[in-house]
Hints:
By secondary structure, this protein is an alpha+beta fold. It folds into two domains: 1-33; 53-158, Sandwich (Immunoglobulin-like). Helix content is 20%, strand content 43%. It has one helix and ten strands. The radius of gyration is 21 Å and the shape is elongated.
Amino acid sequence: xxxxxxxxxLFILLIFVAYACKTRKKLQTxxxxxxxxxxxxxxxxxxxxxxxxxxxxxxxxxxxAKLSVGDTLNLLLKANATTGYSWAITNQDTTxxxxxxxxxxxxxxxxxxxxxxxxxxxxxxxxxxxNATLKLVYKRPWEANTDTGKTFELEVAVE
Length: 159
């Protein structure tokens, strides 16, 4: 009898753990795909970044992007503004790519933790045909030599 009760409790615990893992995975995916956007009035809305066209992330550095004139190129790069570091554009052909927006999105964490990271988003509009290398460096803007070794580079071909 005690064995059956023990096995029943173990089975219920196993189901609970499986459900908790599934829920956690879903929350992590939502956090990756959704960024909170706050406008000037203080209203916030969730933006599903997975729907952005021509989206490249930090892990895709070194890849190639093919665009047509008029397309938007989106970058979502891991960052932590609380450390003073941010992504800075160091190489951009402005006859081919035009800056079309940039913003920092803090990760959604409960409770709101000081020092938690986020993502820095950049948008570029393809305005001219040609090939260009887009390069960004992760650094502190006020320090001359803050080489973190973190760079993002993308070969862009606009047809």
